[in-house]
Amino acid sequence: MSLMRKEASSLSELGFDVDKGAGLFRQVPSSGHDGEMTPLQPCERLTKVSVIGAGNVGMAIAQTILTQGLADEIALVDAEADRVRGEMLDLQHAAAFLPRVRIVAGTDVLALTRGSDLAIITVPRETAAASRMDQLRRNVALLREVVPAVAEGSPESLLLVVSNPVDVLAYAAWKLSGFPSSRVIGSGTDLDSARLRCLLAEHLGVGAQDVQAYMVGEHGDGALALWSSVRVGGMPVLSYLQKTHSSFDAEALEGIRRAVVGGAREVIGLKGYTSWAIGYSVASLARSLLRDQRRVHPVSVLAKGFVPGDAHEVFLSLPARLGRRGVLGVAAELELTGDEETTLRRSAETLWGYCQALGL
């Protein structure tokens, strides 16, 4: 049990009458057609986002969603009660500088996330000591505690899985929730694609927002760069680079791909963890989903029927159109070389093996 004394965080906790606080302003009732004054009706339910896991990644996501004004209520859930309460208070103390958002926090998944429009799941990142299978079993065990509670309290919500290995955990969340696959999404290669855009933008002297480029497939070392799809201002980039750089061959492309998939490891090696980039990536996904933007993101989705020659129910990253109902469509015509198709099928087989071993 923590010995830290719980301080009051609101005037009501200090003993003030909670019902008297709004008396500074007199309510202005609406006028009925018969001249009588009728009370104002409560507004429609506001947008609620729940972030499960208040670690470095979870808090970067919550902070970015907060500052971008994407939610009216943010629920923070974590197994460490003192930590998550401290994070809540730290954000609440910044209320004067931010859009008005209700922030709640605690350890009770069902109670806190109830009525969520979007539930974002971040469980502890991989540890060097654990094998891949041990890490998977540990994280799936956490999902067994979290996902059914979210599904019970928020049966119409969208689930966004951020933790790694994200493809297998997105599959696990889909199975444990009972939701349609369109409402379960993994963050997938969205951030990998952003890293690719960043590298190309720096080389070409343009803004990263002006580069269209996608990484697809398995999140991790097996991710593929769709070189044929890279565009800047509608112009194909690959043919330009090959014409202007005598050394821009297949080996060079592979070097860029390795640099992209190794980007997270470099950041972790330098600062111990990743946080800000994934925070912005997930906030971008949240905006597309909650605001029904219909934007295309490379995210982990149920890929059955979209991977040539593979019919397994696995989650892989493919360009997907996202909106308020979740995944509205998946790119059906990807230009892949024979080697790329083989790599994609191999990734699907590997992921399917993990899913089967977990008994899901």
Automatic annotation (TrEMBL):
Pfam families reported for this sequence: Ldh_1_C (PF02866), Ldh_1_N (PF00056)
Residues at which substrate binds: 125, 132, 164, 195
Keywords noted in UniProt: NAD, Oxidoreductase
GO cellular component terms listed in the entry, alphabetical order: cytoplasm
Gene name of this polypeptide: LOC123155643
Stated family: Belongs to the LDH/MDH superfamily. LDH family.
Residues annotated for NAD(+) binding in this entry: 53-58, 78, 139, 162-164
Entry EC no(s): 1.1.1.27
GO MF, one annotated term: L-lactate dehydrogenase (NAD+) activity
Domain of life, per lineage: Eukaryota
Residue intervals of the Lactate/malate dehydrogenase C-terminal domain: 189-351
Example GO BP: pyruvate catabolic process
Residues annotated as catalytic: 219
Name used for this protein in its record: L-lactate dehydrogenase
Signal peptide: none
Enzyme category, top tier: oxidoreductase
Domain Lactate/malate dehydrogenase N-terminal intervals: 47-186
Pathway annotation from the record: Fermentation; pyruvate fermentation to lactate; (S)-lactate from pyruvate: step 1/1
Reaction(s) catalysed by this chain's protein: (S)-lactate + NAD(+) = pyruvate + NADH + H(+)
